[in-house]
Amino acid sequence: QVQLVESGGGLVQAGGSLRLSCAASGRTFSNYAMAWFRQAPEKEREFVAAISRSGSSTSYADSVKGRFTISMDNAKTTVALQMNSLKPEDTAVYYCAAKQTYASVWWSERSWSYNYWGQGTQVTVSS
Fold first, then answer.
1. For the stretch 58-96, what's the b/e string if a residue is b when 16 or more beta carbons lie within 10 angstroms of its beta carbon?
2. How wide is the angle at C-alpha 108 spanned by C-alphas 83 and 30, nearest 5°?
3. Taking the CA of residue 84 as centre, how many other CA atoms within 13 Å lie in the half-sphere pointing to its CB?
4. For residue 72, which of 101, 98, 46, 111 has the smallest C-alpha distance?
5. Which of 28, 56, 107, 113 would staple 76 via disulfide (CB 3.0–4.6 Å)?
6. Among candidate residues 83, 82, 116, the one with its CA nearest the CA of residue 97
7. In this structure, are residues 48 and 64 in contact, taking their beta carbons and an 8 Å threshold?
8. 80-119: per-residue pLDDT in tens?
9. In DSSP terms, which residues pair with 32 in a beta bridge?
10. Is residue 25 a contact partner of residue 3, using CB atoms and an 8 Å limit?
């Protein structure tokens, strides 16, 4: 069982930045592909970004491309989502997700591909 804990959410003005972090209790992400999803009120959960277990491959939703960066630290204990040039439409609860895989270059933009989820962290961008 993998327990994921997100941190770093908060309130920021449009154009500002936030950095979200996701850590797993008692283990590393060396065998896991990781992703961030978000869910705004009354909307479906949507893909934001993903990174392969090797860290060599990433993917981004078109809406965040060029503004958000997903990364994994060298020790593979934390996955971060650096969010720059934030917009009010980025307001949502952000979730970290993990999928155990032995493929070094694998990720998915589909939420059902991931079987471990964090509790979410709120990001609010004011205009």
1. bbbbeebeeebbbebeeebebbbbbbeebeeebbbbbbb
2. 80
3. 6
4. 98
5. 28
6. 116
7. yes
8. 999 999 999 999 999 999 999 998 899 999 999 999 999 9
9. 100
10. yes
User: Across the chain, which distance is largest between two alpha carbons, in Å?
Assistant: 43
Say if CB 18 and CB 68 are below 8 A apart: no
Q: Which amino acid is at 49?
A: A
Q: What is the pLDDT of residues 26-82, one digit of tens each?
A: 788 889 999 999 999 999 999 999 999 999 999 999 999 999 999 999 888 899 999
